Amino acid sequence: MSKKNTDVNKCPRVDIGGQAVMEGVMMRSPKHQAVTVRRPDGTLITKVEALHLPGDKYPWMKKPFIRGTVSMVTMLTSGMKTLEDSTKMLGVMDEEPTKFEKWLAEKLHKGIDKIVMFVAIVLAVILSVGLFIALPAGVETLLKNAGMSTFGYTLLGGIVKIMILIGYMAFCGTIPDVRRTFQYHGAEHKSVYCHEAEEPLTPRNAIKYSCLHPRCGTAFLLIVFTISILLFLVLNVLLPISNYFLRLLFHLAMLPIVAGVSYEVLKGLAHSECTAAKILRWPGLQMQRLTTREPDEDMMECAIVSMNLALTGELPAHAPRTPEGWAILHSYVESEPGYVPQPAAEESEISSEADGSEG
After folding, report:
1. I want to staple 326 with a disulfide (CB 3.0 to 4.6 A). Which of 275, 301, 322, 331 is the partner?
2. What is the Cα–Cα distance from 39 to 92, expressed in whole angstroms?
């Protein structure tokens, strides 16, 4: 095997990524997004939709440093919708709405699913601002008012952010359902590596790759916190602020700038193989050990189906559909381009051969 296929940290310039969801994986190519989940009965339920990103309508949003902020906002909203879609596809939201939910939907003239998603986004924003901006800003204010140097209180405030992030991720990893989602996160990364290495997308080929990928959102968060420390080391000298609420507003106002710079740093490090880039991206890769786990082959199938369909932009024509229009598959092989349905006995044999096992 060539070095290209064995170097799991090599990251060619490709524009595809993904997200782990409840019992599945979302994959996004430049033009399409696919979500695949595995239901308790073992079937793979998948959907594909065309992407309509802000940058497609407003080209200026694709400009360097601006695109990072746009991407952060887009991923927050679309990420919550993707999670909502995955729960619907699993069938876990099929229960009858409560009286309160019906009343709220009637008063607001909105579907209950939209209300739940809106509330989830609001709570996520409040939690993020509280943990990673309000609390560290309070620590900085206390240390500054206690007479600590600008360098000292800015550095300690940044360390508090990073420690909260590490603690939060470690805590999430102790929850069984979240730990399974982290396994799907690992499956997402492995399938991306396999695709980048231009190997056939099979569970056996993909499973050997690393769970740690340079373009991961976990690495992005660490870069955001690091950039914020460096930025505020300068800004706190130029604009010293003692009042807590003014400091909080200042941190919030700088968030788009930090996100924009961090996005460019992430892309630069991910696509470079120089020694300096490998050293600088190492902490982000190690942080992913908290948010990824080794997947099993069933999980790899979900990631591969989403990868195949995000690249083709079409659901398999032969696959039966649910009432919602989602495709029902029984093997990742059915998502491969050019797949032709075979009789059940032959299908089992083909799937085994594709995976490198004996039929």
Report:
1. 322
2. 10
Nearest partner of 27 among 5, 49, 54, 3, judged by Cα: 49
Q: Is the pLDDT of residue 233 over 60?
A: yes
- Asked if residue 287 has pLDDT above 60, the reply is yes
Burial pattern 286-310, b for ≥16 Cβ within 10 A else e, equals ebbebbbbebebebbbbbbbbbbbb
> Model confidence over 137-182: pLDDT tens digits?
888 888 888 888 888 988 998 899 899 989 999 999 999 999 999 9
Strand segments (E) across the chain: 17-21, 24-28, 32-38, 44-50, 327-329
Measure Cα distances from 158 to 61, 121, 133, 221, 227 in Å. Answer: 29, 25, 10, 12, 10
Q: Mind listing the pLDDT tens digit for each residue in 171-180?
A: 999 999 999 9
Amino acid at the residue 291 = T
Average pLDDT taken over every residue of the chain: 83
Kindly state the tokens that stand for 23. 């019992």
Q: Which of 132, 134, 222 is nearest to 142 (CA)?
A: 134
Side chain identity, residue 308 = N
In the block, tokens 């746009």 appear at 70
Return the residue matching tokens 């695709």.
Answer: 195
The token duo for 200 is 């056939």
